[in-house]
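User: Structure please.
Assistant: Input sequence and predicted structure:
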Amino acid sequence: MNDLFKNSADLLILLTLGIVYLFSFAKMKRIFFSKYGNSKNNALTILFLSSLLASAVNLIHISEGASDAILFFLKGNDFPKAILYAVSFFAVSWLFSIVLFQFSFFIVSLLTKEDETDELIKNNTEIAWLHAIILVSLTFVIAPAIVKIAVSFIPYPELPF
């Protein structure tokens, strides 16, 4: 395979997975936020947008590792493994985004005495901003480590020295 084809395939795979990743995450968050009723307020909007932002940060980081995996396997003409590794990396990052979102609720419940659900329904933007800051900050801190773990599964050849 020539380099133009490999790089084009890499781009197409990452673009497709990125769109699916963000769209499905936003759809899942809409389902999550539906438990707050049909009312939309500033606090819920802040929390929704910050969850998408944190998810996008994970997406940016994992796409580097997925690109490395895609190009490595395409170099050996193993297209199925290139797709499998990329999809696996994106799926793990997607799940990590969900877990981190739930973890931010745990952290905020430790830091505040309020019931977050009630406060968000009451449009308490301070609680929403606290969630947002914790969620996005933790994502920036933890995402590179998740990528390093993911990339360690790529079966690079062992060097003799």
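The chain has a mean pLDDT of 89.
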